[in-house]
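Input:
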Amino acid sequence: MESLEEKISLIDKTRVPCHVAMIMDGNGRWAKKRGLARGDGHMEGISTVHRVTKFSSDIGVKYLTLYAFSTENWNRPDDEVATLMYLIGWAIERELPELLANNVRIHLLGDIGRVPAASRERLDYAVSSTAHCTGLQLNICLSYSSRWEITEAARRMAREAAAGKLDPDAITEQTVAGHLATAGMPDPDLLIRTGGEERISNYLLWQIAYSELYFTDVLWPDFTNEEYADALIDYQGRERRYGKTSEQVAAE
Ligand code: FPP
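Output:
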């Protein structure tokens, strides 16, 4: 088995995905396997967030988008919701000096108004403090779901049309993309889901139209840099055709 250094040497640094999205699944099962509380799994999951952020930044990924809390996660037991909300704010506050040192810009996607004030204040502070950073953009999806996002975009476009600011017949795919939470960002090149499930769970449905999907059984707290490197190597071995033929892609 190759070492991390050997795996990194196999990654073509000129073809690193610009945007990597991740579904961080498996914290609960990781904790259960060890007889720990689910919150302990989320706590360990934060170490993986730290690791993948640093690795993404070092390898040259420009956007890393993490599904931290979905709209549907509000339906989890109250104590788990409270733990997650607290941990996310706490982790961002703790990580802020290192994020700044690594020139990482924090961006939030989701219905942030639903996040409890104490966590929201920490998150808002991290967003404003890193606004000048020009390295990796770390997108944290919080109280986010793709259907929520698309519905919001539809509402905004309808309001603009009603106000005479948007001609319905002039709406293009670019207009829709420009009203999503990811406006101005490239679509994910690679979507990684840990934890063994092979589904999308209401995540970036519009944006992943042509993303490469990578599923691994590894639980999120166990997702090491070696696993991440494996995903990047796998991604680089794929042919992205965007609906064209192999011959057309080769000719380009
Ligand atoms: C899914 O595992 C994980 C979550 C719902 C939360 C993930 C959040 C973190 C790792 C913290 C993120 C922090 C920052 C700062 C971005 P699960 O609980 O569904 O696991 P299971 O499927 O094994 O039950």
